[in-house]
Amino acid sequence: MTASPHWIEPFPHGIYVRPADAWIDPSRPVPRALITHGHADHARGGHDSVWATPETLDIINLRYGRYTGENAVGYGDAVDLNGVSVSFHPAGHVLGSAQIRLEYQGETVVVTGDFKRRPDPSCAPFELVPCDIFITEATFGLPVFRHPPTPDEIAKLLAMLEAHPQGCVLVGAYALGKAQRVIAELRDAGFHDPIYLHGALEKMCALYGEHGVNLGELRPVAGTDKSELMGRVILAPPSALADRWSRRLPDPVTAMASGWMRVRARARQRGVELPLIISDHADWDELTQTIRDVAPREVWVTHGREEALLRWCQLHQIRARALALVGREDEDDA
């Protein structure tokens, strides 16, 4: 383990970029924040000035309201903050998600935020950004987490729908990113029937549409006759799966789209009948391959299954350290 460079320093509540006097994804209000994406464990209200992609700013505005100072930075564009060159690059996680590249006095640091490398029709694909220090997540940083091909999981969903014509398939999916990805993957698989939404998903799906993501015909569950919901795919936040709201649906098969569905005990605990292993995070192979591809001098692990990834780095003669940031978990819409 090496000491952090003098100009960038991790704290439990965020990563501080000293010469820029700015924080990356801080978990408490700060005067200047650089935000990787709009999930609640990375973005929040209360900052004075914020730098983020235009899409992320729109997502934050929808969820938390406007900041006093908003600075939109497009992918690949760079801004100078007191001598630190800051640029945003696609992370492949959700709409607008970005890796933040920082360059100062000849040293380059990349903060990935959350990322994945698999194709996703609902957001820009991950971009490899060479650097000296690579700050990566490790949500699924254990060898057991190897996500199956997404089309195979979508095929399971469609097969269940076909086998259950008098009922419906109710899919639990996070309101930002996961719901829109499931819809977009269904469209890519040739499913063009109307898809029905819990009210909590409607505004975010509309925002994706405003940014050019075609999700096809979406209808609200509210006000829809029960008979019309037979043979339909319905999306809702995970918290609604066992809620009174779901009781009005016609014989629903409960599904859940999450990388955690690899752990069957989690599926059973949540009463999930159809686990769909669809993740917006890199799995073990993606994490390790990305480190190989980036070829950094040093790796910092921000959250998740840190020990296994640190050990992997050690075995491959890569310097690595854990940062132990607080409040970094998969977003839960409960």
Give a quick rundown of the structure.
The chain has 334 residues and is an alpha/beta fold.
Keywords summarizing the entry:
single chain, about 325 residues, alpha/beta, Metallo-beta-lactamase, Chain A, Rossmann fold, 6-stranded mixed β-sheet, 7 helices
List the helices and strands and how they pair.
Elements lengths: L7 E4 L2 E4 L4 E3 L7 E3 L14 E4 L1 H11 L4 E4 L5 E4 L2 E7 L7 E7 L2 E5 L21 E6 L11 H14 L4 E5 L5 H11 L6 E3 L1 H12 L7 E3 L11 E5 L15 E6 L6 H6 L4 E3 L7 H11 L3 E7 L1 H10 L3 E4 L12
Parallel strand pairs: 3-4, 4-5, 5-6, 10-11, 11-18, 12-15, 12-16, 13-14, 13-15, 16-17, 18-19
Antiparallel strand pairs: 1-2, 2-3, 7-8, 8-9, 9-10
GO molecular function: exonuclease activity; ligase activity; RNA endonuclease activity
Enzyme class: hydrolase
Protein name: Ligase-associated DNA damage response exonuclease
Outline the structure in words.
It is built from 7 helices and 19 strands. It is of the alpha/beta class. The strands form 3 sheets. It has a 7-stranded mixed β-sheet with strand order 7-8-9-10-11-18-19, with helices on one face. Strands 1-2-3-4-5-6 form a 6-stranded mixed β-sheet.
Q: Which sheet architecture does the biggest sheet show?
A: 7 strands, mixed
The total strand number stands at 19
Tell me the overall shape.
globular
Parts with pLDDT < 50 across at least 5 consecutive residues: none
- Look at the helices and sheets and give the structural class: alpha/beta
N to C succession of SSEs: EEEEEHEEEEEEHEHEHEEEHEHEHE
* Tally of alpha and pi helices: 7
CATH class of the largest domain: Alpha Beta
Total count of domains = 2
Between the first and last Cα atoms, what is the distance in angstroms? 38 Å
CATH topology label of the largest domain: Metallo-beta-lactamase, Chain A
CATH H-tier superfamily of the largest domain: Ribonuclease Z/Hydroxyacylglutathione hydrolase-like
Average predicted confidence as pLDDT: 93
CATH architecture identity of the largest domain: 4-Layer Sandwich
What is Rg?
20 Å
Give the spatial strand order of the biggest sheet: 7-8-9-10-11-18-19
Portion of residues within helices: 10-25%
